Amino acid sequence: MVGCDGTRSVVRQAAGIDFPGQDTTLTGWLADVELDDPPATPLAATGPAGSFLAAPIGDGVHRLAGLSTATMHHGTGEPLTLEEVREQTRTLLGRDLGIRNPRWLSRYGNATRQVARYRAGRVLVAGDAAHMFFPAGGPAGSPDSTTRSPPTPHPVHTR
C-alpha cells in the first residue's frame, strides 16, 4: 500500500511510522481569487511589513500568498477572511488588485517534518504523507515516489 494521503496521513499513522520535526512558529496565508486588476506578469513584493506573491493559476484565478509581520502569529486553524486578504494585500502591495470571488482561503505554517522511514513492511509513504515543509521556497513536486523507494520489479496484482 502507498500512503499519499497528506500531512495528517492515516496510512502513516496506522503503519506506525514516526513523523518527527519542528512545530509551526509563524504563519502565512494563501488565497485563490479572481482579480479585477490582475498584474500583467507574476508579481512578488517584499518590504518591512512582509512579503506578497501573486500568480495566475488558470481560469481567471490568481493565487495570492502573503507573509505579514502583523499576522504571522495567527494559528493555522484560524479562519482567513476575504476582507483580511484585501487588507493584507493593501498593506503589503499598496493596492488590493480588486480581489473578489474567493475559491480558496487558507493559512499555512512553517512546521517542518520528515518521516523517520519511508517504508514499514508493505506500506510506503510518499508526498505530503512523508514530509511537511514551508511552502515558500520549498521543493514543489518533490519526486518522493520515484527517488525514495526501490522500483517495483513486477506488476502488483490484487486478490
TrEMBL record:
Keywords: FAD, Flavoprotein, Monooxygenase, Oxidoreductase. Residues 150-159 have a biased composition (Pro residues). Its cofactor is FAD. Residues 2-138 form the FAD-binding domain. The keyword Transmembrane helix does not apply. InterPro entries: FAD-bd, FAD/NAD-bd_sf, RIFMO-like. It comes from the Bacteria. One of its GO terms (molecular function) is monooxygenase activity. Residues 136-159 are annotated as: Disordered. This is FAD-dependent monooxygenase. It comes from Streptomyces roseoverticillatus.
